[in-house]
Each structure stands twice: as C-alpha cells, then as structure tokens.
Amino acid sequence: MIAVLLAAVLLDRLFPLHLPAPDTGSTVVLARDGTPLRAFADSDGVWRYPTTAKQVSPLYLKALLTYEDCWFYRHRGVNPYALLRGLAGGLSHGRIVSGGSTLTMQVARIIEPIPHTFRGKLLQIFRALQLEAHLSKAQILDLYLNHAPFGGPIEGVEAASWAYLGKPAGRLSRAEAALLAVLPQSPSRLRPDRHPEAARAARDKVLKRMRDLGVWSAAAVRDAAIEPVVARSLRAPLSAALLAERLHRQQPQARRIASTIDANLQRAAEDRVSAYLSRLPAHTSAALLVVDNATLEARIYVGTSDFADPQRHGYIDMVDAPRSPGSTLKPFLYGLALDDGLIHSQSLLVDAPQDFGGYKPGNFDEAFSGPVSAAEALQRSLNVPAVDVLDRVGPNRFVARLANGGVDLGLPAGAQPNLSIILGGASTRLENLVGAYTAFANGGLAGTPRYTTEQPARARRLLSPGAAWIIRDILASNPADVEGGPLAGAINRHATVAWKTGTSYGYRDAWSIGVTDRWTVGVWIGRPDGTPSPGQYGAVTALPLLFQIVDMLPSRGGHARAQPASVKSVDICWPLGGAVAATDPALCRQRRSAWVLDDALPPTFAERDLGAWSSGLLTLRVNTKGQRLSGACHASHEHTIQLARWPALATPWLGVDDRARSALPPLAPGCAADSLDRAAPIRIAGLGNGVTLRRAPNSEHPLRVTLRALGTQTAVQWLLNGRLQGSSDADAAIAISLPQAGDYRITALARDGAFATLALRVMGPSP
User: Fold this and answer.
1) Where in the numbering of this chain does the Penicillin-binding C-terminal domain appear (predicted)?
2) Coil, strand or helix: which one is 391?
3) Phi, psi of 267, rounded to the nearest 5 degrees
4) CA quadruple 161, 165, 166, 169: dihedral positive or negative?
5) Least confident of 206-220, 443-457, 588-602, 648-662
6) Which of 600, 591, 540 is nearest to 567 (CA)?
7) DSSP string of 599-658?
C-alpha cells in the first residue's frame, strides 16, 4: 500500500497537473443586476463569464449531476462501475461507445487535450485522480461550470446561458437547465441556434431521465417538455461598451467586473440616443451620463452614439473627453456670488455692451436686453452679466472653487484664469460637470460619479446649501419655451427639472445638464474631432434629448430638498436693490420678490467706469426751482432730494417715466460744474429721427446707412433693435445694414453712459 502511495506521489511530481490560472482568460463587465454589458475574449478568442456553483440555478446543478454523474460526491474521480460498463461496450464494438466518464474525468479532458483512445482514457483517469487529490469537489465543479464547451467560442454555463437564452444561469427553467446540461456532450451537433431539433431531442432525453429517477415529478417534466427550444444567434454583449472598456483598462487582471449600470435603462437610453442622432448630420456623436444623486452611482453611461460607426468616431469616449463647457459653469458662478453676499436672486444686472479691460463679450444671439435680474441672466444664459459677476468674484477664486468641487478646468499652456472661462474658455469633461451638478440636489455637495460599488463615494463642498437651493430653484423655473420643455408639452411636465444648456465657441459642443430630486443627467452632442456643427447648440440640440431621458427615468426614490433656513423670500426694489420695507416708496421704481441668503441684501453693483455718475442712491441739494446746487454753490430756501439712479448703461432700455425720474436736475445758473456733468449729450448724425427709407428698385443688396455719433470722445457701441452691430471710435463713421423692410431703432451708446436713439422705417422696393 505504501509503495502504491509512493508511486502515486512520484507520478504526480513527474507529471504535474496544469490547472487554468484563475486570473487569466476572458473578462466580463456586468450591470448591477449581473447582466453582461460587454465581454472581452481571452487570447484564444474564447468567451467565458466567471461563475460558481452558488450562482447558477439549482435546477441546472440537479440536471447536470443526475444526467452526467449522480455519484459525483461519492467517488474519488473514477466510477468503477461506469468505467467497466464503458470498457465492455468498447470491447464489443471495437471502439469507445460510452466512456463511463465521471464529471471529474470530463474536467480532466476539458483542461487538457486528451485523445479518445484507450491510452487516452488511462491518462484521463490519472488526471481525474490528480484533480480529486488536489482540489475539493466544489472546486472541480466550478472548473466544469466555467470551462465546459458550449459551441463556438462559448465556454462555461454562464456565458452559454446569456449567449443562447439571454438570461443568467441563475434563472433557468427546468427545460433550459436540461438543455444546458446536455449541450457539452456534443456542442457542435446540439447547438440550439443551428440545430434546434437535435437540441430538443437531447434535452427531452435528460428530462425523461430526471422523471424516471424521480428527481422531478412527471407533471413538472411534462410542462418542461412543452417549452420550445428557442435560441438567439450567438453574439457578444455590447452595452455601455466604452465604460466597460474603461473599467477593463483600469482592472486588467479582473475576470468579473461589476458596474453600477442599470441594464434596462442603459439599453433604453442607447436606443433613444441612436434614434435621436439619426436626425443629425452623419458625423455627429453624443454622450449621456445619468447619476443617482443619493449614491453618486452611474446608472446610464453612453460614451458614443454608435460604437461601431467610424464616421461618428464611435471609439472615442465623450463622457471622459475634455471639451469646452460653454455656459454650463454659470450656475456655479452665480451660486458663489450668492455665498459671497454679492447678489440675491433678483439683483439688478446690466446686459449691455461693456468693456472689461479690453475684453468685450457679446451674447449668443448678439442682442442685448438692458436691465435684467440675476435669475433672468442665468436662465437666459446672458454673457455680459456673467462676465460682470465673474470680474467681481475673481477668475482665480472661481477656478479654485470649481477644482475643490471636482471640476478641474483645462487651460491652454501658460494661460492663467481669465474672464473668458465663464463663456467656455477652458475645457472640462461631461462626468465632471454631472458630478458638480449633483450639488444642486445634495445641499451644495458635489460628487464624483461612481462606476463600481468599490469606488468610494466622494462628496466635496462646492456651494452652501442655501446657494445650491436658490440656483436650483432658478434653473427649475426657467420660462423658456424649448422643444420638449414645460411650455411645449403638458402643463408642469418638467416642473421638477432644473436645467442648463451650453454651447461652445463655433458650435463645437452642445450641452444640457438636468437635475431632479433623484437624478442628475448630462448630455453632450457634437463632433468628436472638434469640427464645428453650425446651427447645433444646447437649447435646440441637446436639451430635447435630455427631456426624453428624464421622461424615461423612474421618478420615485428621490427625496425633495426642503428650503434651507438660510433662504428667505424678500420683496426688493429696483434700481437700488434694497428691501421694500427699508426703501422710500418714491425710490422704489420696480418691486420684485427675491430669494436672499443669510439675510444679505447687497445693493446694485457700483458701475465699473463711473463716467458721469454712479448707480445707487444720490442725495442732491436743489433750489426752489429744482435746480441742482454744486459744491460751494448755495441758494435761499435750498433743500435736499434723493434720486434712485439706474446704471448708466441700462438707460437706453428704460421707459420714459423711469428715465425722467432718474435724470439729474439741471445745474443752477452760476454754479460750478461738478463731476455729475461729465456725460455730455450726444446725437446721431446721418439720418433724422422718424425718417422712412426705401430700397432702390431692382437692387439685390440690403439698404445700408452711414452714421456718426457726435459729442463724445469715447468709444461708441451701435445697436440695431438691441443687437450689437459694431463700434466706432469717437465720431468715426459706421455703416449699418438694414436687411429687410420694417421698423428699426438704432442706439448709439457711449462708454460713459451717454446715448442717443433714432427710429426709422424701411419700405420695400417700389414695384
């Protein structure tokens, strides 16, 4: 006996068992419910999804062990009775008819090529004994479950179940369990996608065995036999392909990577994106990221509109690609200004041509609106007010605050933060933006999107809870009539969605980001190679897709955020910006209801270039005729008055009454000029007010007029119906085109606030 044991040990040392390495082979990336998203074949092109006996259906294990090796847990690798039966059959037929192989012997043949000969059978027996000596029964069974051949490149029951049946091996019916139990006996001949009748006959043979042995009842087997053999054509899963590739790259040794993706939502979103992109130019791609606000786990990750389309550069992951964010950073700027006590939601800002040290921003539509509230400026994504606010907050501080919240902005080499950042003059990633926007649902804490449950949940302070709540309320109350939006569909259809759009310079990137109680959704549309897409911008291109995605997401499970105690509603006055209760009614020209933070009621911004006068409360001495007294100038019966002054650049947009009540009283005769008189009146030369013009007959060119602003030595901005047409130096001429018939209003606005306007009408060409 000892000699036999020594011989066995010697043979084991001389001919060692070579087991498959546990950290090699194919890799599968799974959705959160275990659904395969994408599989990466091994070096031999084999698809194998790692699994264990605890993860597969008990019905399958029962069918497998009953049909293949009912003595599996009792023998030591070889069943002598089955082996003798197989040997007798081989001798009588002259060839092997029934090998008498145990499951352990089958594993031996799976992990090492062994010929189907009598000599090969001896080697198979030896290897089976080695397996039993080195491994537990559970380990041997797991080897079979993971390496059994199922036809084509498919190995293992989990891969076979998904490939043929579209479901995990843990949810098999009796009929499906019987089919997969018998398939490895002859995977090529019994493949259900190619030979369904042969597969059915083999399956029914297993079912009959289960009934005859009393393992399953006759009624259960009868019901199972009714099921047809319907198999999908073999295809590898390819959902969230770029995320799967990203996770596989991060964990190259992992064979099974569980992601946070919701398989059903992912498939639905990919279909939505594909259908939506079909109406856009051929080279256009899209990216979509949906994050659960409570856990920061990504439920949908679409890195490209079509992974297999080279025209759309489908291999580029646009969730992770640096792009210009356009105006999507503006909510954070206004939130920071709230935290700094610079503004409240209805602070008076001026949307007019301004010069910020040589930087002269314009709006997307090239029009200006004059006096606007901070909320309106954010909702309409006006550029000049945003640059004005950033100039007061400070670009360096703004960039640092974003970085603290997880948004690292990429700047050109050697560049420093500047005012253009708020209009997209930097780069960031969709995943960074989505993570930052979760702050509007999580009390000002921005998070990093999580793609696996192993990733830690990182949340960093970006805004105070009060500032985040106010900005979200502003974004959720946007009155814009956009495709798929609240006013274009059912009443209050998207009332709980706080959304913001953005468009980068040259129509290269169209963005939309939306926040609900439960979800934060980010959409990017553009060309991955950076080529402009004229006419494609955030509100028209990306926002409708965002609303489609929000509509398909489950709405339950989120938690509505209560109004923080630091936020109050206060009625304020324009133009001064203070509370109605603390403002003289005569100085309250417009009354508005504002959200204020920590009881801060900052006054309207002082003007950057004071010019003739500054906005705000102005106290003057006047005589009995209401004429202004300056310096040492006095009069009998003089008294003081107060004026609520509007910002100078807002004056062209004011009504007649507001303009009159804000106007300076004339200087009393004999009084020396004061600084308030620095703005001299200007006038427009070249046309008279109220004229009517007609285009020359038979002319295909638009009517053009040449004008000058007289009476100023500063630069002059020229507006046509509120849209900037250009600028001129002092009294230099400018040509303005009047493209079609209609009424026009031309405004010349000097840098010091002086302005002049004229109205005219253009008639069509005479017949």
Assistant:
1) 677-757
2) helix
3) -65, -45
4) negative
5) 648-662
6) 600
7) T--PPPPPPSS-TT--SEEEEEEE-TT--EE-TT---TT-EEEEEEEPPGGGGGGS-HHH
Query: What are the tokens at 40?
Result: 């990466």
The per-residue pLDDT for 596 is: 97
Number of Cβ within a 10 Å radius of residue 514: 27
Helix (H, G, I), strand (E, B) or coil at 92: helix
Q: pLDDT, tens digit, for every residue of 473-498? A: 999 998 877 666 543 443 344 448 99
* Domains of the chain by residue range: 1-226, 607-677, 683-763
How confident is the model over 715-731, as pLDDT tens digits? Answer: 888 888 888 888 888 76
Residue pair 716/748 in contact (Cβ under 8 Å)? The answer is yes
pLDDT of res. 84: 65
Helical residues (DSSP H) of 148-212, grouped into ranges: 157-160, 174-182, 196-212
Confirm if 510 and 525 have CB atoms less than 8 A apart: yes
Closest CA to 24 of 258, 254, 237, 245: 254
What is the bridge-based pairing of β-strands 616-622 and 628-629?
Answer: antiparallel
Contacts of 172 (CB under 8 A, 6+ apart): 56, 57, 59, 60, 161, 165, 180
For the beta sheet containing 256-258, the strands, ordered from the edge strand earlier in sequence to the opposite edge, are 36-40, 27-30, 256-258
* Longest CA span, the chain: 140
Cα–chain-centroid distance for residue 353? 33
What backbone phi and psi angles, to 5 degrees, belong to 81? -65, -45
State which fold the 683-763 domain adopts: Immunoglobulin-like (2.60.40)
How many CB atoms neighbour CB 664 within 10 A? 16
In this structure, which amino acid lies at residue 212?
D
What's the token pair of residue 251? 């964990």
- pLDDT tens digit sequence for 359-400: 888 887 778 899 999 999 999 999 999 999 999 999 999 999
Q: Give, as one character, the DSSP assignment of residue 231.
A: -
Lookup: tokens for 721: 């119906």
**Dihedral angle of Cα 412, 416, 419, 422, to the nearest 10 degrees:** 50
Average pLDDT over the chain reads: 86
Q: Which residue carries 């390495």 as its tokens?
A: 21
Break the chain down into helix, strand, coil percent, rounded to 5.
35, 20, 45
Q: Which residues 6+ apart lie within 8 Å of 678 measured at CB?
A: 611, 612, 613, 752
pLDDT: which is higher, 147 or 18: 147
Place of tokens 């640059």: 387
Helix, strand or coil for residue 408? coil
Q: Which residue has the tokens 């800002």?
A: 349
Report residue 588: phi and psi, to 5°.
-95, 95
Rounded CA separation 155/147 (Å): 5
HSE-up of 644 (CA within 13 Å, CB side)?
19
Handedness of CA 505, 509, 396, 381 (dihedral sign): positive
- Strand, coil or helix: 275: helix
How far apart CA 203 and CA 60 sit, in angstroms, is: 12
End-to-end CA distance of the chain: give it in Å, rounded: 122
Q: What is the CATH number of domain 1-226?
A: 1.10.3810.10
User: CA 375, CA 595: separation in Å to the nearest integer?
Assistant: 10
CA 218 – CA 240 distance, rounded (Å):
44
Q: What type of residue sits at position 241? A: A
Quick one: tokens of 395?
A: 């670009």
- What per-residue confidence (pLDDT) applies to 494? 42
Q: Which residues are catalytic?
A: 68, 327
Q: Give 459's contacts (C-beta < 8 A, 6+ positions apart).
A: 296, 442, 445, 446, 447
Residue listed under structure tokens 């770029």: 242
Q: Which has the closest alpha carbon to 210: 59, 82, 20, 85? A: 59
Fold agreement (1-226, 683-763): no
